[in-house]
Amino acid sequence: MSLRGLSPADIFERALAGERHALGRLITFVERDAAEAEIVAEMAHTRAGNAHVIGITGSPGSGKSTLTGQLVKLLGEAGKRAAVLAVDPSSPLTGGAILGDRVRMEDVASPDTFIRSMATRGHQGGLSLAVPGVVRLLDATGYDPIVIETVGVGQVEVDIAGTADTTVVVATPGMGDSVQANKAGLLELADLFVVNKADRPGASDVRRDLELMLDLSHLSGHDQRTGMRPEIVMTTALSGEGAPEMWDAIERHFTTIADNGQLTERRINRDVAEVRNRLMADLESRIDVMLTGNSLSGVAEVLDAVAGRSLSPTAAATQLAARISDL
Amino acid sequence: MADEVSTNPPQLRVVLAKLGFDGHDRGIKIVARILRDAGMEVIYLGLRQSYKNVVNAVEQEDADAIGLSMHNASHMTLAPKMVAALAEAGLEVPVVVGGIVPDEDIEPLLEKGVAAILGPGASAEEVAQTIRDAVASMRAETSQA
User: What's the pTM?
Assistant: First the structure.
């Protein structure tokens, strides 16, 4: 049915009733951060908090989309109403994007599955800033679980761990030696490891390196903090081999953190992080206004002093920090 | 929180697909790249899609336009059926056909609701502008109605 002339509240009602184009439109509001987005967020927040949010992350070409497709297929067969958010990068030059993950999922997904492709729109952490808002909408409209597939990431794009209840890191043979596995970053935040392309040579070496890394995790207090040692599952996404074991491990993780209180804690932290991100974005735009405009007297003089080498950038920042609230 | 990349005017989202049994996907890949470079978000469906797949994608992705690539002389059958499938789903989204369409087929396709047709030799600028124009005229049309 056409959405023409409907208010955001009307569209929300339609989305609750299961109309998929209505949900699609609400997501667009959130992505554009349009005036409607705040109304939508309010309506969604009171209804959300039920869905298991699963993040799938890993380097480009590791098989995230194919694995997500296999997962969605299993969930459909189990009668679950799953949703997928597939995130791909925006061009830093033009803002355009090619979102090509849907094509790997649509054929295997059950008709009840909702799949949305999102571009990062300039955000650097492996997700788009709109992802938490979109997750909330999917949750509020009854999708469970919600699977987020991040952009292909390297080592430091750790947004997903703050957004998902269960973070799955996909590794593949040829990703490097055991030193790579011990570096800081994404690997530390995994709740579950999947070694994909397990039919290829070197897969068992990857597993061994990950096990070794995990054997040493107690040194940093990791296991005590998270309440469990991450499992490692071997998969071959193309054939679907290992996918049921992956889902079982995801569910085991969810049950564990639901029982030990981690889940509640993570979700509280997630909401706080979102408030923080909003405040940061607001602050950033104020700083941009301060530094590029002439709205505040004295700022230009401080910047000139830095250019003239009579004031250090550090001292300039200290002086200007006190002025942010004037904006 | 504003989008970090400028989205003024709002970022267009375009579904690109080939319907049915047509394996010539060199063109659609180039068009995907052209639209990306014109600042649009392309939801790339690629080969062997059904009307249902395209309708699903338009609904869930809230797409602003559809680009159909047609190289197997099925355009007179498939393109109007795609337009009809969208209308049936209540989706007011323009369909732009690109590929090999003989001159005498252009008028009949436009009459059947195809928004525009792009042939071989269309420039990158022309491709992007045709999409923008198709979206703009669909919006003008639906806001009048």
Answer: 0.89
Q: A4-18, A148-162, B15-29: which range is least confident on average?
A: A148-162
Find the Cα–Cα–Cα–Cα dihedral B138, B140, B142, B145, rounded to 10°: -140
Identify the CA nearest to A84 among candidates A60, A110, A61.
Answer: A110
Instruction: Answer whether A116's CB lies under 8 Å from A83's CB.
Output: yes
B61 to chain A: which residues are within 8 Å by CB?
A: 24, 102, 116-117
Sorted by where each starts, the structural domains of chain A and their CATH numbers stand as 1-47 (no CATH), 48-260 (3.40.50.300), 274-326 (no CATH)
Helix H or strand E encompassing B98: strand B95-99
> Distances from the Cα of A219 to the Cαs of A29, A30, A182, A213, B78, in angstroms?
45, 42, 12, 11, 63
Which option is the CATH number for B13-144: 3.40.50.280, 1.10.10.10, 3.30.300.20, 3.40.50.300?
A: 3.40.50.280
Digit-coded pLDDT (tens) for A204-251 = 999 998 898 888 877 776 666 677 889 999 999 999 999 999 999 999
In this structure, are strands B95-99 and B65-70 parallel, antiparallel, or unpaired?
Answer: parallel
C-alpha closest to that of A145 among A239, A78, A231, A229: A78
Euclidean distance between CA atoms B45 and B25, whole angstroms: 11
Predicted-complex ipTM score: 0.89
Contact A106 B56 (CB under 8 A): yes
Cβ neighbours around A178 below 10 Å, total: 13
B chain contacts of residue A90, beta-carbon cutoff 8 Å: 5, 41
The candidate with the shortest Cα–Cα distance to A47, out of A15, A79, A73, A24, is A15
Task: Count the Cβ atoms, other than its own, within 10 Å of residue B127.
Answer: 18
Using the beta-carbon criterion (under 8 Å), do B38 and A96 form an inter-chain contact?
yes
Nearest-5° angle of CA A274, CA A138, CA A141? Answer: 125
List of residues 6+ apart from B120 with CB closer than 8 A = B100
C-alpha distances in angstroms, A161 versus A33, A66, A83, A217, A309?
23, 21, 18, 17, 42
